[in-house]
Amino acid sequence: MIDEELVQLLTPEGERVTHPDYASSLTGEQILSMYRDMVIVRRLCNESTSLQRQGQLALWAPIQGQEGAQIGAGRALAPMDFTFPTYREHGIAWCRGVPPENLLRLFRAVSNGGWDPQKYRHHVPTIVLGNQVLNAVGYAMGIQRDGADEAVLTFFGDGASSQGDVLEGFVWASSFNAPVVFFCQNNQFGISTPSSTQSKVPLYRRARGFGFPGVRVDGNDLLACYEVTKAALENARAGGGPTMIEAYTYRMGAHTTSDDPTRYRVDAEVEVWKHRDPIERIKALLVREYHTKPVAFDAINEEAEAFALKLRDDVLAMGRPDPLSMFDNVYAEPHPLIDEGRRDMAEIRASAGAN
Amino acid sequence: MATSTMTMAKALNEGLRRAMEANPKVLLMGEDIGKLGGVFRVTDGLQKDFGQDRVIDTPLAESAIVGTAVGLAIRGYRTVCEMQFDGFVFPAFDQIVSQVAKLHKRSDGIYTMGLVIRLPFQGGIGAIEHHSESPEAYFAHTPGLRVVSCSTPNDAYWMIQQAIESDDPIIFCEPKSRYWEKGEVDLENPPQGLYDAVVRRRGTDVTVVGYGSSVKTMLRAADAADAEGTSLEIIDLRGIAPIDFPTLVASVEKTGRLVVVQEAPRTASVSSEIVAELTERCFYSMRAPGIRVTGYHVPYPPARIEEDYRPTVDRVLDAVDRVMGYES
User: Fold this and answer.
1) So what's the ipTM on this one?
2) Which domains does chain B have, with CATH numbers?
3) How far is CA B238 from each of CA A34, A200, B159, B215, B272, rounded to the nearest angstrom?
4) Which of A77, A297, A351, B83 has its CA 20 to 30 Å from the CA of residue B235?
5) Contacts A–B by Cβ distance under 8 A
6) Structural domain count, chain A
7) Digit-coded pLDDT (tens) for A32-75
């Protein structure tokens, strides 16, 4: 199942392995910091699932199992790079500095976005599969025209890899040599559809046919995800054009809180992937190589608990938006139907005694 | 007053040139728009003068033309996308309605989607299937988008520049059967606002509203009606979304009768919207129901019989007779 070309720098047991093209450049301090990121993001994810189950979120899209891929990729970004996520890039949003409560505005159903995408250089969530890939390539074409030392990192999954927009994005990025890195998290399932239905060849091999390199990386190996993404972004910034990264991972949880994975996959498979947990293998490395003490892990866990409590408070404090706000920012310039709608709603609410 | 006589295609070309000179962030993107100058030559010579980075010949993928223009807009560029023909806009439909129309809202106003999608539309050129359609209603129906159509070289010259300057996304519908007709262009003074309807001919008995290629048909109908003693007021809609209803209301309150002309099929169309809205706003002024003269509810027919599909002078006059016939 795991391709021999898979880039891995750390085994599931937390032992380093060498690779001819990639070597880990991270210090123990950096690894511990990224371990903390992963723990907090997993805690965010668990808390969000609980909030959904308690009726406080409309939906949640879990990322358990994908923290290594996302924190690895997210920490490889330079500050001026721009990211184009799906609705599942919670780890990337965390790395970009998007306030976690803003991330949950979409799922709380109080916003269709949730943050200032220019401030955090992290595009708003894209729910229509693959649309963001073309938007990312266009942004990268803008970088080219500006002559800027920046790159774009865009995300999609094995499911969206069948979308025309993703494949058109490959063509354009290749034809225009755009500074964009395609980061595909192959988490094995598009809701219930196995990745084998999406592609008869390993996804990363598609890139070669489009004229740029594709790399398959162990998506549960933080160190490998970091180095592979960093190298691809550096290559893009240097004018080397696009790279596709297939982070081979596994969605440990459901597609969303509306999903029931027990209907389409077996427990034994999930058990296998549990042993490849991205957080546990970094913990093993930290203990073995850096002699990180239990007290350090305890402190991170405590921080994550406090984080979750605050997140819960922040979510519960999100009230119903002013209904009149639906008329804001539909257009940048005045529009008669917006004026009319706003006026009609205000009158109806006034006559109904609403505030 | 500096004026020049030119075709609508040339007027669009000059308008694009002027917009590109005024703002280095203006880009053109489309299939065959560079060396070839576009299948209608609207972008003729622009790549030579502005370079391949600003006049971009793209791979053949409409969703990508629009999808990358979205990314360029986020980066601060204003891209004019050329859809080669109306019937080829549908691969881009998803990007247009899911992203172009919604990103200003989804980003709480942070992004502006200042891009223009040029759409040669309507029939009348004897083309094969998918080259003669009128898809404007799909876009007019979508919140977040704006839709306009020019019918003269002067409007083409100015409206394309106004559209490029707009911070909102605009579907710019060009009546392809009019590309080669010449008209005078005032190179100094813009005629009016981008969405303003214009009374092309004053009249007293029936208000006739249309856009794009229909305007010429309506003007010819006005001549014919005049000979029979019926005075038609001809209004060129220009703004399809939003519609300039104050101008239409003023006219219908005067004439009491309304005919709306379009090439698109009738159901859930721009003409339906105009009739419904004017019925609501002008009910007590109207002496007859508003009548729509439109394409039929069939796929656009083979070109050998397209003139039986498109609104003709006779069909407009027939509608005029019907609205006139409501009074004894």
Assistant:
1) 0.96
2) 3-186 (3.40.50.970), 198-324 (3.40.50.920)
3) 57, 51, 9, 10, 16
4) B83
5) 136
6) 2
7) 999 999 999 999 999 999 999 999 999 999 999 999 999 999 99
